[in-house]
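Following up on my earlier thread - several people asked me to post the actual chain instead of describing it. Fair enough. Here it is, all 259 residues.
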Amino acid sequence: MKPLSRRRLTLLTAMIFFVGWFSGAYYLYNNQVLIVRVEGPIIDFQPTTLALRRAETDPKVKAVILYINSPGGYAQACLEIAGYVDALKKVKPVIAVMGAEAASGAYFIASFATHIYTHANTITGGIGVLAVWVDLTRYYNQSGIKIWVWTTGKEKDFGAEWRSPTPEEQAQIQSEVNELFQMLISTIKQNRKLTTTAVEEITTGRVFLGSRAVDLSLADAIGDMVDAEKKAQSLTGIQRYIVVAPDTEDRDRFLKALL
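Reply from S.P.:
Thanks for posting it. Predicted structure:
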């Protein structure tokens, strides 16, 4: 057998290196930990639910880190996102990381995660429901503003700032607030397997630091994004992976992992 020339040996070595690199890159590409962020007041659920839905159906995504830094938001938006987190959790791990703040509806979303990390000084809790009806009739009167209203139904101007709520409307709003609150509490209790003492403490609507949240079982441990990555690795069993955080500075980590 004739020995390989130096040129052919160099070419063969380069091919082996390329195949090895490509195989490693392909493996990493197919083992992704995706970061989905919930930040600021939660008003629109669409961007978040879309990201969660894509993560659920994408076989390359093995786990999701749900980073939450929010004071809460509209009830409907929080409920919608929570439903998507619940659906995703049944397919692959969802590790929540609470940032500076994860309160009210934002914590409700976190409660559906497989595992919850909190920073020691995260502000969380604040579980409750608030409904507001602003009545500007006195301002309008003092400003000489007159308002005429034509409606197709008696509830069409429900919540309108140009009038006060009727006694019946006040009773209706309070009933709906109470019903929603009881649903939130019972769901969080079930998700987090809370004790009666913990439930009594969170129903006051007060906020807690993250360290206290761990004591109450509102969170599993003190930790950060690095801890969440390790948890994702242990829950999925993957040895090597890439962290993908679309439209953030973490995209560089994804690109560097392929080089």
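Residues 129-203 form one domain. That should answer part of your original question.
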